[in-house]
Amino acid sequence: MNTTWEDFYAKHPPPQDFNQNEILLKTFVERQLKKDKKVVLVTSGGTTIPLEHNTVRFVDNFSAGTRGSVSTEYFLENGYAVIFMYRLNSLEPFSRHFKGQKLLDMIDVSEQNGKSTITVLPQYKEKLMKIFCKYKEILNQDKLLQVTFTTLSEYLWLLRAACQALACLKNKAILYLAAAVSDFYIPSNELSIHKISSSGPPTISLQLVPKILAPLVSLWVPQAFVVSFKLETDENLLISKARNALNKYKHNLVIANMLQTRKQQVTIVSQEDNYIISLTSDQLNKGEEIEQSIVNVLIDKHQTFIQSSEKCN
Amino acid sequence: MNTTWEDFYAKHPPPQDFNQNEILLKTFVERQLKKDKKVVLVTSGGTTIPLEHNTVRFVDNFSAGTRGSVSTEYFLENGYAVIFMYRLNSLEPFSRHFKGQKLLDMIDVSEQNGKSTITVLPQYKEKLMKIFCKYKEILNQDKLLQVTFTTLSEYLWLLRAACQALACLKNKAILYLAAAVSDFYIPSNELSIHKISSSGPPTISLQLVPKILAPLVSLWVPQAFVVSFKLETDENLLISKARNALNKYKHNLVIANMLQTRKQQVTIVSQEDNYIISLTSDQLNKGEEIEQSIVNVLIDKHQTFIQSSEKCN
Predict the structure, then answer these.
(1) How far apart are CA A184 and CA B200, in angstroms?
(2) Torsion angle, alpha carbons of A210, A211, A212, A216, to 10
């Protein structure tokens, strides 16, 4: 028998930093509400399913957090405030441009009048300056809140708290659920306490994670604009699965993408139609990002959604 | 029946970039041999076990790559050349100091004579300068080679190639096997081709990974100084498991550590004794790193090992 979402929350205690995050979320949304801002919740990165209480091993979902972190920058550029709810150590907006050794290759130390100074190499200066100025502006304007999760259970607790904070914004909130959330988990009471011994090969029995879109759409943020994602590796299933989800949960859009081509093409599936967005190889090579087009389309659709829902009232 | 290591290599094809990495490893070691350098192979980060051929989901091992990336810096500081074999996107030496948003918080843009310049905030300048200079020096001196893996199979292919390259250094090579390698895997022919459907909860059957230390010690680098790691969550098993490994594989040292206290205490287990290294909370708060002490002890032991093996010849 599958677990219900009520059961899941009843059986998994909230994460340690939960109260603190709940307050951050609530006060951030209140400040945006006062400024009459639209707010998008972007979820990003994969969730883990621990195989042991003292976790050494876990099942993970493939996700670097690219979709979410890139989209966040474009939402901010378009005037939205963003709650960026992301997997710890996955990509973050702005800093994603300077991963790993890249930073050290961008700078140089020079001697001037016997004093060493650090300088940015000329070819990187403009890019670094641009990103830095945007980042500081966003911080100064209080338009970005970042909160982190690692496990599936942490994700689900944080997601509900974010929804409860956002509900007061009504149709001005977008939920952009780009995180790669596990479909399966191991119930807490079946977890091994210590590292699984390697004396014999274990069998891991997984349970289905309750479909959280159901209470999210119908109970937590019933007036918000909700966008979910569908990632597949089998082209034949992609659009039908996306449309099934839309019919089942009655939310606004599903962004359908294939694992292999997700940076080059997505299909935005709505009740009305399938809308394909794609980049040419030439555009990709120039560094254009498909998230810019996705966000532009969404903002249009969100605007139409706000107008039509206000007409109804 | 458990797979043998020969079987594993026979059934899993080499990764795509394997030939290229093989050449990099071979030529790097040859250059060090000419300079009469000691070389350490540091493995770092966790391996993944894909659950699907088109991988969306995988089982992963907890590891940020701290032990390996930090130790690499200390080996370099002590004159060793290092092959840093690490999990893609895990921590790397030097750049590990500037993770995530940290960089953007370290710099500022100032206006001078109508020109914008990027400057490092004074409180970070010394640290950044020091790390940058070390990094450039290491690159200029050709003392560091970095190669990456993601899956268990990529790790095993790369490890054997590194060993084969290092064999010619004889007792001048250290193997410092800090990577968190999976004990289990799903045989390639039992993998699902596409993303596992979430219509029913799956059961995952895992097989034991062949113990690669056996051929490594007895066949691939029989004259090298080999150090393995043992991570446990149950204190009662830690030392006995480390000692069992040492008796079974006949290598030089096992570094035993508990998941919960691994940054504060390790036990270096040798045929002769157990040697505990620990940091006080005060030392930890000051930013001291236990890897510095581990590396110092290892270098001493490696020196003794070289002298005693040369006496035998």
Answers:
(1) 9
(2) -140
The answer to whether residues B10 and B189 touch, using CB atoms and an 8 Å cutoff, is no
On whether the CB atoms of residues B194 and B51 are closer than 8 A, the answer is no
Residue A100: φ, ψ to 5°: 55, -140
* pLDDT tens-place string over residues A184-224: 888 777 777 667 666 656 677 788 889 999 999 999 999 99
Which helix H or strand E contains B274, and what residues bound it? strand B274-278
Per the DSSP assignment, residues forming a β-bridge with B269 are B254, B274
ipTM over 0.90: no
Q: How far is CA B312 from CA A61, B33, B226, B298, in A?
A: 52, 22, 18, 21
**Testing the interface with A: which of B49, B63, B99, B101 to mutate, by most A Cβ within 10 A?**
B101
Residues 6 or more apart whose CB falls under 8 angstroms from that of B290 comprise B263, B264, B265, B266, B277, B278, B279
DSSP H helices, A141-175, are 152-166
What pTM does this model have?
0.85
Q: Contacts of residue B200 in chain A, CB cutoff 8 Å?
A: 208
Spatial separation of the C-alpha atoms in residues A254 and B41, rounded to whole Å = 47
CA distance A310 to chain B (A): 37
**CB burial string A92-126: b at 16+ within 10 A, e below:** bbbbbbbbbbebbebbeeeeeeeeeebbbeeebee
> Which of A120, A183, A202 lies closest to B198 in CB terms?
A183
CB B301, CB B174: distance < 8 Å: no
Measured CA to CA, the distance from residue B258 to residue B54 in angstroms comes to 35
Report yes or no: A152 and A209 within 8 Å, Cβ to Cβ. Answer: yes
The secondary structure element, H or E, covering residue A117 is strand A115-120
For residue B150 the two structure tokens come to 């993601």
In order, the DSSP letters of B204-234 are EE-EEPP-THHHIIIIISTTSEEEEEEEES-
